[in-house]
Amino acid sequence: MRKVPVGVLAQFDAQGRLLPVSVTWENGRIYNIERVLGMRVSRMNSANHRYDVVIHAQETCLYKAGDTWYMEAE
User: Fold this and answer.
1) Which of 8, 11, 12, 28 might form a disulfide with 69, Cβ 3.0–4.6 angstroms?
2) Single pTM value for the model
């Protein structure tokens, strides 16, 4: 698996949580995030987050490492 840097449109909810809304893939295609299932913070580095999301009815993971967002691809 390779890490693919992606663009992310995100917003803050009423409780101040950062929630991704859409992902822009490396080819420029935009994918709307239908649902955020959860978010986990890395125990090793609190700047790293993993978002479990649904895109096109498929569950996948979106990662945030500091200010950089990425997804994994084969």
Assistant:
1) 8
2) 0.89
The DSSP line for 58-72 is EEEEEEEETTEEEEE
| 34 DSSP assignment | -
Smallest CA-to-CA distance from 36 within 70, 61, 14 is with: 61
Question: How does pLDDT run across 61-72, given as a tens digit for each residue?
Answer: 999 999 999 999
| Distance separating alpha carbons of residues 33 and 45, to the nearest angstrom | 25
Residue 46 in this model has a pLDDT that exceeds 90: no
Quick one: which of 54, 18, 47 has its CA closest to 8? 18
Amino acid at the residue 46: S
